[in-house]
């Protein structure tokens, strides 16, 4: 997933960036609210992490302007402020959840996963369909109850399709949401990952879990799972 981090504390920002990148996410960072607003308007993020106490443009104003520009991706606010009034102001500005500093990396991971699931209409961390099971919390995939070994990029591609299952996802969308800004958009890497997933998940081609819709993109079809809207 592609995540925006707007945090003016360099050490904390780097810590969050490293954690998210280690989990396979593409991460953009901004040290102040003004740059965060620019990035937040320009790119199609899956979720944003916004500190409230930002220079140049505070976090609440940043969130309000993003929502006014109809940027609807989930936003998690970070705050060192302990009062409930500050948390309420952040949520009422358009944020979806908050995390009080200091926090444990596992709590950040859990809250982000929950926001991503809710945004795609999934209440559970485990997405199931027929013989396929994708645990988005443990980042574990099983087929007929047997573990499937995937690389980080293969898993990220599958997870994104699963969170948008039933929808056609273009190569451009996958590239924008899964890979860093300097990724070669003209490469055939996406096709390679899709090919590998098909061989690992459906070697006989009987399940047709991942189909190609000409001119539209790739679609994950989970048996028994209603498409997201």
Strand order of the largest sheet: 2-1-3-4-5
Percent range of helical residues: 25-40%
Order of helices and strands: EHEHEHEHEHEEEEHHHEE
Poorly predicted runs of 5 or more residues = none
The CATH homologous superfamily of the largest domain corresponds to Response regulator
- CATH architecture of the largest domain, by name, is 3-Layer(aba) Sandwich
User: What share of residues are in beta strands?
Assistant: 15-25%
The backbone outline, from C-alpha atoms, is elongated
Class of secondary structure makeup: alpha/beta
> What is the CATH topology assignment of the largest domain?
Rossmann fold
Summed up, the domain count is: 2
Main β-sheet, in a few words? 5 strands, parallel
CATH class value of the largest domain? Alpha Beta
Q: What is the number of helical segments per DSSP (H or I, 4+ residues)?
A: 8
Mean pLDDT: 87
Amino- and carboxy-terminal Cα gap? 19 Å
**How many DSSP-defined strands?**
11
Radius of gyration: 18 Å
